[in-house]
Request: fold
Amino acid sequence: MEQRKLIKLGNSSFTIALPKNWVKKSGLKKGDNVFVIPNSKGELVIQSSFSKISEEKKIEINVENKDSFTLKRELRASYINGYNVFCIRGKRNRDIASLIKKTIGELIGMEIIKNESEEIIAKDLLNMDEMDINNCIRRIDNNLREMFDIMAEGFKKQKLSQTLFSDIVSADKDITKFHLLISRILSLGIDTPAILTKLKVTGVLLINTWWFSVNLEHIGDNIKSVARIIKLESLEKKDNEKLFKLFIRLRDLYCNSLESFYNDEFTKEKILNLANEGKELWEEFDKLTLNKNSTIAKIAMKLKEAETFIYQNMKMVLNNKDLKKV
Reply:
C-alpha cells in the first residue's frame, strides 16, 4: 500500500499523485482520462478504462440427458448469476424445446436470437443503464394487489372460479419474473461500483431490496395456496365471513407496509404501530390453525405465514431508514 498526500487544486477540487508503476502498467500517458467511481463502502475506485455494465458474459448449456426440472433450474441460475448470452446445445425433443422457449420467455430481457436443430442462442437485450430496482418492486406489488383483490372476490362468493384462479396463477408468474430480475441485478451489482452508481443504492440497500422481494414472492405463494384451497373446497357461510374479514385486514396491512417502503416520510412510529396490528392479526390466524375444520385450519396457516412475511418486510423498511441516515 502506498500513501499519497491530498493536495488542494483551486477552490473546488483536490488531487493526488498516481503511482508511476500503475500508470505504466495501465498504458496511460499524459492527457489520458481515468475513471473515478464511488463504491458502496464510500471508497473511490480508479480505473484506466470504464468497465461497461453490458460486457458480454457467455455460458454454454448442454441439454442432453437432462430432465426438465434440472434444465429449468440451470437456465434460471445462469440468468441470476449474470450471464447475458446463453448457448444452449445438444439434441432435444419437442418437450425440451418447448420448455427452453417457455423458460427463456419468463426471464425478463432474454430473447432467443438463434434457433437451430442443435443450438439455441439467447441474449439479454435489457438495458441495465436504464434499470430502476424500485420499479421492479412496484411491478411485484401491483401483481400482489391484484391477487389480494381476486381473493377478496372469491371469499365474497364463497368460491373461486377457474377463471379467477387462472388470473391468480398468472399474477404469481409475473411476480416470479420480477423477483428473478431483482436477483440478477443483485448478482451483477453487489461488487460492481458502476452498477450501484447507476441504481443509486449502496450494496447493503441492494441486498435488503432483494430480500424484500423474496418476502413479497412468498406472500404471493401463500395467496395462491389459499386460492387453490378455496377453489377445491367450500366453506360454511359463517366461517367464510370470518376468514373474509381477517383477509381484508391482511390486505390493508400489506398495502400499508408497501406505503412505508415507498414513502420516506412514513415514520418509524407508524411502522411499529403496523407491526403491532400485524401481531394481533397473526394471533387471530394462529387460533384458527387449531380449528377442527381442516379447510379453515389450512387457510389460516397460509394467511398466518403471509402476515409473517409482511412483518419481515416492515423490519427491513426500518433497517433501510437507518441506513439512509448514515
